[in-house]
Design brief:
CATH architecture of the largest domain: 3-Layer(aba) Sandwich
CATH topology of the largest domain: Rossmann fold
Order of helices and strands: EHEHEHEHEHHHHHHEE
Strand order of the largest sheet: 2-1-3-4-5
Shape: globular
Largest sheet: 5 strands, parallel
Number of domains: 2
Radius of gyration: 18 Å
């Protein structure tokens, strides 16, 4: 049985966090229009958001980055200590705030662009709720280009525990591909891909696909190309 109140009705519980009242109201109206979603609260800063998350136990948090009192980065990190832990979807500008990279490392499950269409926002909430990371390949390549200089370029020893197929899957996850897309590229059943992804996360001690993306580029296992493509580096024996 879930600890979330009213969880039995099956709707996704969403908390909206943005310091602009007009933006909050817009998101609330959009989400409330969906039969499978319910807005359980709206906050104007990170501190208020954390307090509301403790009270309302949302499944998903739409989190702005730059806010007064407490920003989205710190709020995201604090929400990782809650039980049950909500999935955080970062809201950012198209040019990518410097904070987004750190927010992903703090525990966010992905991010949405603030100029996304209503359909993209609703799809994003559902994708993250299903357990997948919201990291479209085009957005991932922008993130990588912005922060490639932070890479450690030293593959962690745990990478040696991955099989050849798992390294292939890992690299495609790092490019932001979904299980279905990976299945198409590798000519595998989607359930098989899901099993490989689970094995990769377990062996590398990662929480989710977002952490896998960050690790792949930080470690230098995957190197971004100028065209947004990715090349896999083979660890030394």
């Amino acid at each position: 049985m879930s600890d979330r109140p009213d969880a039995d009705d099956g709707r996704l519980r969403v908390l909206v966090v943005d310091d602009q009242a007009v933006v909050r109201l817009g998101f609330q109206a959009l989400l409330q229009s969906q039969p499978d979603m319910v807005v359980v609260g709206a906050a104007g800063d990170g501190r208020q958001a954390v307090a509301m998350a403790r009270q309302t136990l949302p499944d998903i948090v739409l989190m702005d980055v730059r806010m007064p009192v407490m920003g989205g980065l710190e709020a995201t990190a604090q929400m990782q200590q809650l039980s049950p832990r909500p999935r955080v979807l970062i809201l950012t500008t198209f040019d990518l705030d410097d904070y987004v990279y750190d927010a992903l490392r703090a525990g966010a499950s992905g991010f949405l662009l603030k100029d996304a269409t209503p359909e993209q926002i609703l799809e994003g909430v559902r994708v993250v709720a299903s357990g997948e990371a919201l990291l479209a390949p085009t957005v991932t390549s922008r993130l990588v280009a912005q922060f490639a200089g932070r890479a450690r370029l030293v593959p962690p020893s745990e990478l040696g525990d991955l099989t050849g197929r798992e390294r292939e899957v890992f690299a495609l996850v790092a490019r932001g591909m979904s299980n279905a897309e990976i299945a198409g590229v590798l000519h595998l059943a989607e359930q098989t891909v899901k099993s490989h992804v689970s094995a990769v996360l377990f062996k590398l001690g990662l929480r989710d696909r977002v952490q896998a993306v960050v690790l792949a580029y930080e470690s230098g296992l995957v190197v971004p190309g100028s065209d947004g493509s990715s090349a896999v580096q083979t660890p030394s024996p």
